[in-house]
C-alpha cells in the first residue's frame, strides 16, 4: 500500500491549484493547519476512521468542533468554516468544505496532515522559497546567520528561510541541510570522513 505522502500528493496539488487560481493560498493553508491539528487528535482520529460513520456526519462533526473552539469570533477560521458548512460563506471557504466532503466520502480525512505538509511545500516552491536547516556547534550571531542566508540565496537563486539549531556534539563548525542535500562543515563530520579514509 502506498504511504500517506504518496496518497496525499494528488489531493494537495488539486487543493493548491485551486487556491492559487482563486488567490486564496494563505486562507487554504490556514484551513489545512487547523484541520490537521484536529484530525491528529487521537479521539477524533478514531472517529473519522470509523467506517460506520457517514461522510456527511463527519463533516457535520467538524462544524460542531469549530463552534466549540470559537463560538463568538466571526472573523476566525473556525467560524468562517462553520458558516461555510451551513452554506453562507465566501467561495473559497465553500470550496474548502467541498474538499473536506470529498475527502470524507473517499475515506481520506486521515490524510489531512500529509496534505497540509505537501501543500506547504508547493506554496514554498511557488514563492521560490527554500528552507535551510542549519545546525551549529555554538549559537550563531545575527551577522553569521545573515551571511549564511545571503550565500545560500545567491547560490540557490531563491529566498532562503533559515532554521537554526545548536548541537555541541558537532564540536565546531556547522551542517546545512537543504532538501536532500547536506553540507557538513563540522569537526565531527571531518573526523568521520578521516576515519572512513583511514579504514578504507
From TrEMBL:
UniProt entry keywords in alphabetical sequence: ATP synthesis, Cell membrane, CF(1), Hydrogen ion transport, Ion transport, Membrane, Transport
InterPro entries: ATP_synth_OSCP/delta_N_sf (IPR026015), ATPase_OSCP/d_CS (IPR020781), ATPase_OSCP/dsu (IPR000711)
Any GO molecular function: proton-transporting ATP synthase activity, rotational mechanism
Main location per the UniProt record: membrane
GO cellular component, one term: proton-transporting ATP synthase complex
Record HAMAP family: ATP_synth_delta_bact
Family note: Belongs to the ATPase delta chain family.
Protein known as: ATP synthase subunit delta
UniProt source species: Faucicola osloensis (Moraxella osloensis)
Highest classification ranks of the organism: Bacteria, Pseudomonadati, Pseudomonadota, Gammaproteobacteria, Moraxellales
Amino acid at each position: 500500500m502506498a504511504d500517506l505522502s504518496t496518497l496525499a500528493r494528488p489531493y494537495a496539488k488539486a487543493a493548491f491549484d485551486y487556491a492559487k487560481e482563486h488567490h486564496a493560498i494563505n486562507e487554504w493553508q490556514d484551513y489545512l493547519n487547523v484541520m490537521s491539528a484536529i484530525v491528529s487528535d487521537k479521539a477524533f482520529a478514531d472517529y473519522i476512521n470509523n467506517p460506520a460513520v457517514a461522510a456527511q456526519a463527519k463533516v457535520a462533526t467538524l462544524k460542531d468542533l469549530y463552534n466549540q473552539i470559537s463560538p463568538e469570533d466571526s472573523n476566525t477560521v473556525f467560524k468562517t468554516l462553520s458558516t461555510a458548512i451551513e452554506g453562507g460563506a465566501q467561495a473559497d471557504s465553500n470550496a474548502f468544505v467541498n474538499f473536506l466532503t470529498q475527502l470524507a466520502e473517499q475515506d481520506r480525512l486521515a490524510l489531512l496532515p500529509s496534505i497540509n505538509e505537501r501543500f506547504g511545500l508547493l506554496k514554498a516552491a511557488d514563492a521560490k522559497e527554500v528552507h535551510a536547516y542549519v545546525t551549529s556547534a555554538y549559537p550563531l550571531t545575527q551577522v553569521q546567520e545573515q551571511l549564511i542566508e545571503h550565500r545560500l540565496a545567491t547560490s540557490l537563486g531563491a529566498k532562503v528561510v533559515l532554521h537554526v539549531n545548536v548541537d555541541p556534539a558537532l564540536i565546531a563548525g556547522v551542517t546545512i541541510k537543504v532538501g536532500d542535500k547536506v553540507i557538513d562543515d563540522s569537526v565531527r563530520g571531518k573526523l568521520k570522513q578521516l576515519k572512513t579514509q583511514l579504514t578504507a
